[in-house]
Amino acid sequence: MVKVSVDLIGRCTTQRKRKGEDENAFLKRLTHINLSDKKIEKIDGLEHCTSLQCLYLYENKIKRIENLSFALNLTHLYLQDNFISRIENVGMLRNLRKLFIGGNELTEISGLASCNYLEELHCQAQRLPTDQCLTFETATLHAVSGSLQVFNIQKNNISQVSQFRVLRSLQRLDMSWNHISSFEEVGTILGNSACCELTTLEMKGNPVTKQHKFRDFVTLMSSTVSMLDGKEITKTERQFLINREAAKAQAQARYHQRSNLNNVYMDNQQSEGMRGQDMMEHAHNETFDDRYHEHDEMLGDQLEPLVEQDSAQDSYLQQEEEGQDDFVQEDDGQDDFVQDDDGQEEDGLHPLEEASGDFVPDNADGEDREEV
């Protein structure tokens, strides 16, 4: 195991010990120390470096974050590619601006609730099982939501990203080589209500990037993203897409308006048709009644002469019958006369003269008709 010593520190900094300067004074004024790839297993021996601002400890064998309580001025901490399984003992690092802790064995990003000035967090490519994704503590995300500008979470089996919408100051987000598969999931972090200052988005290697018009979707969803997967989104490209979508929206609006008007027209036509049908039936009934009355009047006019004629004929027949009865009675009288004729004539008058009251000659010579 390699132990951090004053000699090692002196060889791992660009600052040089002044002539006649003691070791403690030298260590106290150091601001940058690069102890990367030194097979260090434990953070130790740095307690005199109180002015330390940048500490490079990547590519070592460190398993735990510890012994950094002295580094109140530390702003950059590089711990990537070690064997760290938990973020701890960093609560006192209130001036920490950049934390590089990718390539470790973390399962959760936590323990940063006191790091309110953290601007960059690099936690990519944790050594995780294939069926496990890196998770994020809510308190940590809210603590850095107003300060975090760069967030690198690539290669962590992440499929849901809506939890990152609280990072309102985020400018660069690298989510490459994860399991993000839907436009909707990406849309949760874009737009004015989420990461409204985002300018650079890396998404390559996710299933969603293989879908049709993914680039157009990102370009339209965010008015601030100007770099997607290493390719610039120009103002001309964005304006073209905006104009195209506006034209589509206008066409759809016109279509829906016409559809609505057609529906209203059809409803009105149906109502008018039913009303017209009722009116036609009513008019038909009125016309039928009028024609019926007219027909009755016309038939009455035609029947009236016939009725009068029938009445006249009935009167005539009645008169004929009455005359015939009189005639029958006269015949009876004649029979009586014939019977009387068998005897002697009375008063020398012809029977017809007695019946009619007038003298009727039997022949032209005025001779009396012979009795037959």
Automatic annotation (TrEMBL):
Superkingdom field: Eukaryota
One matching Pfam family: LRR_4
Q: From which residue to which does any coiled coil extend?
A: none
Compositional bias (Acidic residues) spans?
319-346
- Cite the residue spans of the region called Disordered: 309-372
Q: What Gene3D superfamilies does UniProt report for this protein, alphabetically?
A: Ribonuclease Inhibitor
The protein's name: Uncharacterized protein
Source species: Guillardia theta (strain CCMP2712) (Cryptophyte)
